[in-house]
Amino acid sequence: MQVMKHRSRLEIIAEILETANSSKSIQAKIMHRVYLSYPQLKEYLALLLENGLIEYRQTDRIYRTTSRGMRFLEIYRQLNDVVVMTDNIIVR
């Protein structure tokens, strides 16, 4: 059984964007892959739509990560790499 750790808002946003980028993502798929309740999902999707990080295609009822969302993921990964490297340095 997987133990869930506390995730930051940025981590959850990154997980949603990665899910929406990797496949045809309907709400249910995002909700299950990212482990969110329906109210949480609606809140995050509204935030991502409002900021242009994700788009919703009404005809297919799917969410896709926009180029702006891809840029967010790129920066997020770079920052995450820096933090991981810093953690490794501190531990030694």
Radius of gyration: 15 Å
Kindly state the percentage of residues in helix: 55-70%
The count of helical stretches stands at 4
Whole-number mean pLDDT: 88
Shape: globular
Describe the structure.
This protein has 92 residues and is mostly helical. It has a single domain (9-91), classed as Arc Repressor Mutant, subunit A (Orthogonal Bundle), CATH 1.10.10.10. It has four helices and two strands. Strands 1-2 form a two-stranded antiparallel ribbon. Helix 1 (9-22) crosses helix 2 (27-34) and helix 1 packs across helix 4. The N and C termini lie far apart (31 Å). The model has no long low-confidence stretch (mean pLDDT 88).
How are the secondary structure elements laid out?
Elements: H1 9-22, H2 27-34, H3 38-50, E1 54-57, E2 62-65, H4 67-91
Antiparallel strand pairs: 1-2
Helix pairs in contact: 1-2, 1-4
